[in-house]
Amino acid sequence: MLNNYRIKNVTFCSNRAVLSNGEQQQELNFTEAKLLEILLSKVNETVLKETLKEFAWQHTVVTDSSLTKSIAKLRKALVFFFEDEELIITIPRVGYKFVSNDVVTIANVETSIEEPITTKSDESEYLQTTEYEDKKKSKISVRNKILLTLSILLIGGSLFNFLRLLPSKNEQFIAEGYHVTELTSGGFSHTVITRKGMELNPKLSFLLSQQKCNCLFFLDKISGHYNISYFDPKNEKGKSFIFDEKNLVEKLRVNLSEGEQ
């Protein structure tokens, strides 16, 4: 048989087992496609159950239950295009009927599925969108690489300077170009090392003085970012942080509190 059919604005291609309106499509399995084909070939006529089973399953013996399930799936595919119409009706204990006055047979056509028309304008818009997305991803990638490199440099510089300024067992020294500030509060003494000329934020100074340890702190500022490291000789532990200038004190307070736990 292998004819194609048009149901209103929807085309059914038998050999491809596809329903399509040119923009959207529904794929059927082999059995569903064969059932629809014979129902359309006898549109508005009752097709017996045995005729349907012989045509769709050919030499395989199947039950009425299998037929009912396949018809249900076929109805679901049709509802995708015809929401308010019941095209396949059940004739109790007899068979099924495809009911429609808008079915046209398209004979001797290999494929009648309408493909969406792509205009030059659509292609141009697609290419522009793709190019924009590629540029956007490239910019994000470059920015992430720059931030990663900057973070590594800041962390490396902070650790290097901090380790270089730690007091040795034999002598205590400070490198040229750095300044030492002593903070005392609550019975604890803190040593704060900064570059000469760097002003110590009063709120930051107060926060450091409240730490319950005789700690050594190193502070540096590079390109709007603060490197802050501390070392607690008693507990033999230390930590380094990198913060931007905004909300510096609040962020440091949280991280120092976590370090004490």
Low-confidence stretches: 108-119
3D shape: rod-shaped
- The number of strands is 13
Going across the major beta sheet, what is the strand order? 4-3-2-1-8
Helix proportion: 25-40%
Cα-to-Cα separation, first versus last residue: 80 Å
Order of SSEs: EEEEHEHHEEEHEEHEEEH
Estimate the strand proportion: 25-35%
- Average per-residue pLDDT, rounded, comes to 80
Task: Label the structural class.
Answer: alpha+beta
- How many individual helices? 6
Radius of gyration over all CA atoms, rounded: 39 Å
Structure report:
The structure is a single chain. With 261 residues, this protein is α+β, with helices and mostly antiparallel strands. The chain has 6 helices and 13 strands. The strands form 3 sheets. The chain has a 5-stranded antiparallel beta sheet, with helices on one face. A hairpin with a 4-residue loop joins strand 12 and strand 13. Helix 1 (30-41) packs across helix 2 (49-57). The model is unreliable at 108-119 (pLDDT under 50).
Keywords:
single chain, about 260 residues, alpha+beta, five-stranded antiparallel beta sheet, five-stranded mixed beta sheet, 6 helices, 13 strands, rod-shaped
Topology (SSEs and partners):
Layout: E1 4-7, E2 10-13, E3 18-20, E4 25-27, H1 30-41, E5 46-48, H2 49-57, H3 64-79, E6 88-91, E7 95-98, E8 103-106, H4 120-165, E9 178-185, E10 188-195, H5 202-209, E11 216-222, E12 225-232, E13 237-244, H6 248-260
Parallel strand pairs: 10-11
Antiparallel strand pairs: 1-2, 1-8, 2-3, 3-4, 5-7, 6-7, 9-10, 11-12, 12-13
Helix pairs in contact: 1-2, 1-3
